[in-house]
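Please annotate this fold before class:
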Amino acid sequence: MKATGIVRRIDDLGRVVIPKEIRRTMRIREGEPLEIFTEKDGEVIFKKYSPIGEVGTFTGQFAEAINKACGIPVAICDNDTVVAVAGVPKKELLEKPISRTLYETMGKRQSYSAAADGSFALEVSENSPSKVSFMSPIVAEGNVIGAVMSLQKQDGAKPDEAEKKLISTGAMFLSSQMEV
């Protein structure tokens, strides 16, 4: 755990203010849910709640199924980290923070496709060799909670219509699972 040197007091209603610098760094927005954990030594830990993380095993199986059926490298992320990957080495992406540009692109609530000239500009994670071929955001209850992505293949081919439809269908399916 990283010490910040910031001290806050609890008010009479039991509230504590998380400093703006920490909220900005951790991408915590107003109204965003946080999980609260306690440790035996008296620590209280706040962790961003990830609905995608709640179905982590399922998302991993989903990514594996797409990869095995179609040979497409796939990654699924929440708003902070990659939660499932198939078709690329897991140590390369799994549980790595997503790039700022991917986060911002997801926030636009639109699909992203690599350029027709074959350039793959959108990184999955900072300093990662994996680039996004096609991305579709996962939207549940009006909020973007993650994304399903196909990743750049070895041959550098741009995404075809079948790949785009498969990834979009996956994002819609996961969206519906979050709203149940």
Observations:
- The longest strand covers residues 132-140.
- The radius of gyration is 18 Å.
- Helices lie at 20-25, 51-54, 56-70, 90-93, 100-107, 161-178.
